[in-house]
Amino acid sequence: MLTMMKGRVRYKRLSAELSADNGRKVGPRRSRVIVLHPYLKSVKNVNRTIGARLQEALGLAEAINLEVVASETIGLRRIKAGTYFGKGTVQRFHNIVEKQNVDLVSVDATLSPVQQRMLERAWDTKVIDRTGLILEIFGDRATSREGVLQVELAHLNYQRSRLVRTWTHLERQRGGFGFLGGPGETQIESDRRIISERITKIRNELETVTRTRELHRMARRRIPYPVVALVGYTNAGKSSLFNRLADANVFEKDLLFATLDPTMREVKLPSGRFVILADTVGFVSDLPTTLIAAFRATLDEVISADVIIHVRDVAHPDTAAQKSDVIQVMSELGLEFDDDTAFIELFNKIDLLSEEELTATMNIVSRNDKVVATSALTGSNLAGLLEKLDKLLSVDRRATKLSVPHKDGAALSWLYRNTEVLRRADHGEYTEIEVSISPDQLTRFEKMYVKR
Question: What is the pLDDT of residue 433?
Answer without folding.
Answer: 93
